[in-house]
Sequence to fold (181 residues):
Amino acid sequence: MNLPNKLTMLRVLMIPFFVFFMLFTETDPGFKWFALALFCLASLTDMFDGMIARKYNLITDFGKFMDPLADKLLVTSAMICLTALGKLPAWVTVIVVAREFAISGFRLIAADNGIVIAASMWGKSKTVSQMAMVILLIADLTYPWYVVLSNVVMWIAVILTVVSLVDYIAKNRSVLDMSNI
Fold:
């Protein structure tokens, strides 16, 4: 369990605390700032675990599998909370969650055939855009320019979500040939 993998696991452990603060923001509006801080901190662990793993050659199969899973858990938890609070349209959450299930299934088929699929640049861009969207929506400022910015970032996140799904499948279509579908 090297440092990047510990950071990944820390990100997973932060999720229940984040969800708690998110779901009680209506009870105590100050909780949104705790939720925002936790989400930002968890998002930073994603950046740092990758940087450290690459710099010190600490890339492991566990990290290749768990890092994207931790990102999915963090972002989808946030999006589900935001949808429940009426701050994010349900269709956006459905698209993101459907993509994550599809890629997870795809990765399981690949793993059954001895292939580990690492994150692509499209997948990383998707994650960054989703995290930016979540941060903007949690902060929930009421300035007109902020509302426009939040909507633009939401659309960018949705587009990158779909593009990254197509990219993963196109680049790894041989996995489908191995799956006996």
Notes: The chain is about 80% helix and 0% strand. The chain has one domain: 3-178. The domain at 3-178 is CATH 1.20.120.1760 (Four Helix Bundle (Hemerythrin (Met), subunit A)).
